[in-house]
Amino acid sequence: MSDAMELFREIPLRRGDRMGVPIVETVLPNEQERLQILSIHSDNMKENSFLCAEELRLEELASRTKNFNRAELEALVESAKQFAVIRSWQNFDSIKVTMNDFLEALDKVKPAFDDAISALELFRPNGMLDCGERHAHVLATVKTFAQKFKKSERTPLLTCLLEGPSGSGKTALAATIGIDSGFPFAKIVSAENMIDRSEYRKCALITKVFDDACKSPQSVIILDDIERLLGYLHIGSFSSMVLETIIHLLQRTPPQGSKLLVIGTSSITVEDLKLMKLLNAFNVHLNVPALSPTDMRQVLEPLDVFDSADINNAITALNAEIPIKRLLVMINMAQRGGKGAHMSKGHQKIQLSYFYKCLEMTNTFSNVS
Ligand SMILES: Nc1ncnc2c1ncn2[C@@H]1O[C@H](COP(=O)(O)OP(=O)(O)OP(=O)(O)O)[C@@H](O)[C@H]1O
């Protein structure tokens, strides 16, 4: 007789911690490895006569479990067993796990890695527009570092600071690098998670993220808006306890078998970052600039929100340098007003006169126009 209680053993998923992003502790197996793991489990089930062997399509399951780690594959198997038990509740003698039980389990068990990626996706809600050569250079440089770092056997820690004016797109770039890195542990440390926390508590929370990351072979941590983590108002007015903690963590070598990529973002000036000894705490720093007129064109042309005859005037009317965030806000505002109430891409264009009005209202009008 099948032991129903044995089948019903639960394997809890390791789900989110205080920072709201899940912890993933192992390297993600590839499709072949997933097939092997699932085969081992199905063999065990066959031995115990729990499996409806003819029906199970292991290759299909291996291909549909991208981003599942080993523990999550086990959780999937356990969940399929639970579905089989529930289905057979009137006759526990003949419990058989079928492909259908696995398909139901796939709806229930989700890989934590997907949650981690979704958490990063929230920081680039509009996707990534081409912001010109200088942004592309920053992205390509850090991505190359990350890929080399991933392969290197000698470097356990790489830290990179993206500095530049507020709204220039630093967090969106950092999130993109985190997503594309493919590191199974990815987490953003941001001030939003720390509102009303004491200095001591902030330090403990930040340290915990680094400690958790060290349990994974490959991790990426984004320290977002460092000035907000520090409560920075100006040089001389910030939490030195949080600063010391961050500097210490940026220099703490992860344990053997663990690799950590840290990407910081900050709008503090390079001079102040130097004075705070924060600039040198990172291995590299790159500037994420506001958009130049050439960059603005790069953004505006594909968006197709202006008549081509108006684009030059629109760019001339903008300040010589404008962060991507501000440009997007201006476009959004102008799209909602003017003669035609709402417009969608490719249909009605922004009225230049209304665009000027928006710039005036928000003090974004170029001094030279
Ligand atoms: N390449 C891009 N394509 C589309 N939208 C972008 C791009 N870069 C940034 N944005 C958007 O601009 C806004 C500001 O970006 P982000 O938060 O990354 O800037 P930031 O430099 O980190 O700002 P802050 O210094 O204020 O934290 C966000 O809404 C973001 O989605």
Automatic annotation (TrEMBL):
Cofactor: record remark: Binds 1 Mg(2+) ion per subunit.
Residue stretches making up the AAA+ ATPase domain: 156-292
Subcellular location, principal: cytoplasm
Subcellular location: Cytoplasm
Reactions this protein catalyses: ATP + H2O = ADP + phosphate + H(+)
Broad EC category: hydrolase
Family: Belongs to the AAA ATPase family.
UniProt-recorded name of the protein: Vesicle-fusing ATPase
